[in-house]
Amino acid sequence: MVIAQNIEYFNSPLYLESGRILESYNVAYETYGELNADKSNLIVVFHALTGSQHAAGRYDGDNKTGWWDSLIGDGKTIDTSKFFVICSNILGGCNGTTGPISVNQSTGEPYRLKFPVITISDMVRVQQNLFSRLGLKNAYAVIGGSLGAMQALCCSIEYPDFAKRVICLAGTSATSPWAISFNKIAMDGILNDPLFKNGQYDEDAFKDDGLLGLALGRMAGHISFLSPHSMRRKFDRNYVDTDGLYELFGRFQAERYLEYNGYSFSRRFDPLSYLYIIKAMNIFDAARNYESLKDSFSSIKAKVYLIAFKGDLLFLPDEMELMRDTLYELGRKSMTEFVCVDSDYGHDAFLVEYEKFDFHIKKALTEEI
Predict the structure, then answer these.
(1) Residue 59: is its pLDDT beyond 90?
(2) What's this model's pTM, rounded to 2 decimal places?
(3) What is the CATH number of domain 179-279?
(4) Residue 146 annotated in active site
(5) Four-point Cα dihedral 270, 271, 273, 279, nearest 10
(6) The CATH number of the domain covering residues in 3-174+286-366
(7) Cβ neighbours of residue 143 closer than 8 Å, sequence gap 6 or more
(8) pLDDT tens per residue, range 216-232
């Protein structure tokens, strides 16, 4: 598999949905495979909340593969011997694309909390600007899970001629109060941590010990990504072997798991980026700028594949059923495929239980439209 890492620089202004303007911005992205002569084999992959452009493969000297490496590669479900795959870091991110920790060229200082609030539409507009710069006018398919599914859906509505196939996994057409509430825990944890310093921390301040507020918020969020069933299978009521049962701070294995994920995450992800991305997630509502969801979906031209997960407690399957039903009402039944995968893992099943859904993606990529 041919892998390339790139950053594209844009000096033209970006007009945001909020009315604010970014005078310049960068977009970091990776590509896998090779573009064919007529540029008809493009697949766009949108990453989720804390993902990055590193969707597949392995960097030299790094033991960790890209977050969807099980699906993307030569001979895999998204076959890079046939398709040219691109994944870019979202606007507001902290992996090379412009975000709140980036330097504002007009002031010479990082934006920090002066960075404008962004939306999913802004993220997708930046990606479209990237594709235009690269001469990529149309996609064979766009695909994403969770926040990535929001981007895929937004792309199908706002750029209806871009993709022939839109594949959404574990998605929603509007972020629910349940999901917003988990994000609130993270937001308050970050803002009330003294080391956050109202966003005026040193860029490398948390590389060793992390930020407690972000770690606690991530623990709460991680619970929403799983389910009681997967937690029981992973840990049951097992206790950490080295901790005493009657020690006040002795831990069950479930507690140690949350600690590990929360603190390791807070050492690698920028808290300002996290604030801005969860705000964009909270704002997301595909019907917000339309009279109704049906009105919003009326512009969609692509075939839409909706893959829900039975045990998803963050974006419930009935949220994707609403999307299906709305498309049916528009007379698009033949251009809509819906499946609810029999999984009790939870929301993160789209990142874990590949064997339960990969053939649905393969079907979407191989059938004639």
Answers:
(1) no
(2) 0.96
(3) 1.10.1740.110
(4) yes
(5) 160
(6) 3.40.50.1820
(7) 43, 44, 45, 46, 78, 152, 166, 167, 168, 169, 361
(8) 999 999 999 999 999 99
